[in-house]
Amino acid sequence: MISQRAKSIDTSGIRRVFNLGAKLKDPINLSIGQPDFDAWPPLREAAKRAIDSQKSGYTVTQGIEPLRERLRTKYQLAAGTGEFDRDVFITCGVSGALTLAYMAMCDPGDEILIPDPFFCIYRDVLSLINAVPAYYDCYPDFHLKIDQIERAITPKTKAILVNSPSNPTGISLTQAELDAVVELAKARDLWLIYDEIYDIFNYDGPHAQLGSDYEKTLIINGFSKSFGVPGWRLGYAVGPNILLQEMMKIQQYTFVCAPSISQYAALDGFDIDFSEKVAEYRRKRDFIFEQLSQKFEVEKPSGAFYIFPKAPGDSAAKFVERCIEKNLLVIPAGGVFSQRDTHFRISFAAPMEKLEQGVEVLNSLAG
Ligand code: PMP
């Protein structure tokens, strides 16, 4: 009655945490992958204005021109300046952009190389289109190991996907690491997909930028995290027109267009100064790392709002169950973010008092 495709996805890992969490009264919830601030006030006003000025119709599939123009400026895509014919179009979040990219790149059986640990949809959307995830290992420090990536390439590989700063590890790539993977993609004639949705959340250095000297690269990015609007479903894809045209064709018959109100409202977000928010998350990063590193094996995150410690004992799932018994929600890696179940993800996009309570529980359980 139900397709193998639908059955191929297993969301039970995250659901178990949420189901257990739903039973708790006022849990210490450090499981959520979204900012703990609401849409910035100018955006809220802009969304109301968009509704009142009757912007509720479909937009063109590729997104409204003023928004594309702002993004062309951000990515220096002014006509005729780049080596390749690149452009940007608006999608239903980074999730939408990724789905379209996979559909445009892969035939059944094709492989996309994704990091392990990974953000779960990288793997699961592939099974929806009968393509196959292959993994390059990033343990134990969660940086890229070019030889690992190279070894994982097969004749079926279509693309290498990289994510910086990373969900779930919080590690940011250096410019040299990103450049090296571009060189590898170029040498092996593969697509390179760069998910930089956390680009403004880098705490220790500049965000690694994907240059445009190799044609087969695609940047996916969006507004969910920086503008505080994950429910507005707004993202974009930056890449060569040969690929974007195909992605837009698929968008036209699936998502149709990104939400119109969100597109118009986003125009008012480009002048927002994020620095105070980023500084606040840096302070939270410092606090949680300082507290946990005394008892846990843990890498210092350099971006996003996650930290990814090794669980004591032999199973992160079991450790997380003990956390939940103490009213603390975090997510075990196994089945959700990794092929291994040794680590767990904490989101520090939460009020300081919750972080304090969370580290107290964790350190008491670490013994
Ligand atoms: N990529 C990463 C690394 C993410 O963490 C998320 C959201 N958790 C997404 C993409 C999806 O974002 P969007 O809301 O734009 O679909």
- Say which CATH homologous superfamily of the largest domain is assigned: Type I PLP-dependent aspartate aminotransferase-like (Major domain)
CATH class of the largest domain: Alpha Beta
Question: What's the gyration radius in Å?
Answer: 20 Å
SSE-based structural type = alpha/beta
Which word captures the global form? globular
Lateral arrangement of strands in the main beta sheet: 2-8-7-6-5-3-4
What count of helical segments does DSSP give?
A: 13
Distance between the termini: 49 Å
Mean pLDDT: 94
Q: Provide the succession of SSEs.
A: HHEHHEHEHEHEHEEEHHHEHEEEH
Q: Can you summarize the main beta sheet? A: 7 strands, mixed
CATH topology of the largest domain: Aspartate Aminotransferase, domain 2
Which molecules are bound besides the chains?
A: 4'-deoxy-4'-aminopyridoxal-5'-phosphate
Query: Structurally, how many domains make up the residues?
Result: 2
Poorly predicted segments = none
Describe it for me?
Helices cover 38% and strands 15% of the residues. It has 367 residues and is an alpha/beta fold. It has 2 domains: 130 residues, Aspartate Aminotransferase, domain 1, CATH 3.90.1150.10; 210 residues, Aspartate Aminotransferase, domain 2 (3-Layer(aba) Sandwich), CATH 3.40.640.10. The longest helix is centred in the C-terminal third of the chain and has 18 residues. The termini are far apart. Bound molecules: 4'-deoxy-4'-aminopyridoxal-5'-phosphate. 4'-deoxy-4'-aminopyridoxal-5'-phosphate (PMP) binds next to helix 5.
